[in-house]
Each structure stands twice: as C-alpha cells, then as structure tokens.
Write a structure and sequence with these properties.
single chain, mainly alpha, 4 helices, 76% helix, elongated
Length: 103
C-alpha cells in the first residue's frame, strides 16, 4: 500500500495520466512527430513491429513481471517497507531518466 492506498490504484492513476499526456500530444502535429520519434527510439524493442509474429512484446512481459512484483510487495511487506520500496524505485527511475537526458 502507498499512503493507505493499494499499489494497483497508484499504477492505474499513473497510466491514466500518461494516456492523457499522450492524447494531448497527438493533437499537435509537431508534438505528435516528437512523440513518435521518442517511442521508436526509446521504447520500441524491435526494428519492425509485426504483431502476428510477436504477439506479446518483451515490454508487456516486463510490465507483467512488475505487476507480480507489486502484488508480492503489497501482500508480504509492512506499510513502511512498501513505502520504502516505492520511493526507492521512483528514485532509481529518476536516476535513469537523468542519465538518458545527459547522454
């Protein structure tokens, strides 16, 4: 739990915020092009997307694994441990973002 709220609620909220941001970007052609370049350069894991040959991407598998991890955290750790884990993960994600931005 995160501040007395289950982790999955925080995850769902983050996803909704992301979708809202993506939708806003698609309304402006320049931002849409920038978003597409970003998605291809930073998130597309294969040079060509062929859904029929790769029905489950590695990113989806990573997300599934993350959800299993969050479920374990939610059911096995104390409230303080859960908060520490979430803060640590957010800190590490921020460090990765800073490294990407500087390179």
């Amino acid at each position: 739990m995160y501040n007395e709220v289950p982790i999955y609620v925080l995850c769902e909220h983050s996803l909704q915020l992301g979708i809202a941001e993506v939708y806003t970007m698609t309304q402006d052609e320049a931002l849409k092009d920038k978003l597409c370049r970003h998605l291809v350069q930073d998130h597309l894991l294969t040079p060509v997307t062929k859904p029929e040959s790769e029905p489950l991407s590695r990113r989806v598998i990573q997300l599934e694994n993350a959800m299993h991890f969050l479920t374990l955290v939610e059911t096995r750790a104390t409230h303080e441990e859960q908060r520490g884990i979430v803060i640590d993960l957010m800190r590490k994600a921020s460090e990765v973002d800073k490294q990407r931005a500087s390179s």
